[in-house]
Amino acid sequence: MFHKKFLLPTVAVMATMLVVAGCKKDDDTITPTPAGSAQIKAVHASPNAPAVDILVDGNVVRSGLSFPANTGYAQVTSGTRNIKVRVSGTSTIAIDANVPFSENSFTTIFAVDSVSKISTVVLNDNLASPAAGKAHVRFVHLSPNAPAVDIALQGGAVVFANTSFKGFKDFTPLDAGTYDLEVRVAGTQTVVLPLNGIVLKAGEIYTVFARGFVGGTGAQALGAEIIVNKAVPGAPTVGNGRVLVTHASPDAPGVDLLVANSIAGSNLTFPNSTGYLNVGGGARGVKVNVTGTSTTVINANLPIAANANYSVFAVDSVAKLSTLVLTDDLTAPAAGKAHVRFVHLSPNAPAVDVAVTGGAVVFGNRAFKQFTNFTPLDAGTYNLEVRVAGTATVVLPLPGIALQAGKIYTVFARGFVGGTGAQALGAQIIVNN
Fold this sequence. Notes:
Elements: E1 16-20, E2 23-27, E3 37-45, E4 52-56, E5 59-65, E6 74-77, E7 79-87, E8 93-101, E9 106-112, E10 119-124, E11 134-141, E12 149-153, E13 158-163, E14 168-175, E15 177-185, E16 191-200, E17 205-211, E18 223-228, E19 241-247, E20 255-259, E21 262-268, E22 273-279, E23 282-290, E24 296-304, E25 309-315, E26 322-327, E27 337-344, E28 352-356, E29 361-366, E30 375-378, E31 380-388, E32 394-403, E33 408-414, E34 426-431
Parallel strand pairs: 2-18, 3-9, 11-17, 19-25, 27-33
Antiparallel strand pairs: 1-2, 3-6, 4-5, 4-7, 7-8, 9-10, 11-14, 12-13, 12-15, 15-16, 17-18, 19-22, 20-21, 20-23, 23-24, 25-26, 27-30, 28-29, 28-31, 31-32, 33-34
């Protein structure tokens, strides 16, 4: 089956997740906000909602965001911005809101509640540095069917009292250290969730939010999520290049992406992409770690030219994971045309042709890791097929491929020949502009 995921350029800088005793941490790396800009972060906190795309003024900031992950901070122009939450892979808009953002501010937007009642909670993020030996912590109650709760030391004093669904307690200074906490029904000793071994580091700024359903199971079970909000110096905003990273290794787990040792994306799963990330010019170290670990599976240096665009694919089977780096020519197509390139990223597939169904070859004889340049094609809807190169043997039909005038597409073969489920042979489309 042919799957399409449309990803538009973005300036997102995304977060990584670290598990601590039943809670996940997301470590947000923040680029300095120049005058006239603000930074925003979206969090998927609706337990039973599907994966979503986050759009700011019609541009996709993150695609395929699943519960309970977040985008990390993305830089936007200050002022009132239109925020949309769209069910991934569809045109269905779940949330459409205009939100004001002050210059040089940081804001977190949570998509909350059950899917039938999805709405937003918008919080201003005060990232003032904690005093020596202190951490700043806030609590947000985002479990739709949980009663009002207290956050307390286990068997001891209440830290955050009587917070109901959609309520929050602002950033509060606490001594750095390791805490055994518990979530209680407000005003009682009834524990609904133990939180053991919570590490608060001096100088860090944390958002802790209750997530999931009381009585929920699996991913929807009642739990807590930790986001680390500490601001750190980031790459310069002038002379940046842009990098789009795609997880194209069919049997590899979710990965975290680091650019110049700063977190740029967390829990990126096959066959998803980050969207374009702003990175500083010059040689940049790119690392791919197994999500939530320090295990580095790819460690490469990538020369970034100012104002250039790149796609980095993590490719091959997990045992032979490597990178393919392409330069992206985003020159606008001529009137009535779309630009399309093909990249062969199915590790065990033979060399292939991409052809019109029953007709002429469009992209000929590309083996694994090979690609074409962006090629102008007439806008329209195409019935295509992937054939074993030089033969009429069809290995993958691609019916109903819509190419819009003015758009720039990367089509890549993904998965394994003979693979099943998510690893089955298929194709993915990225919209590069």
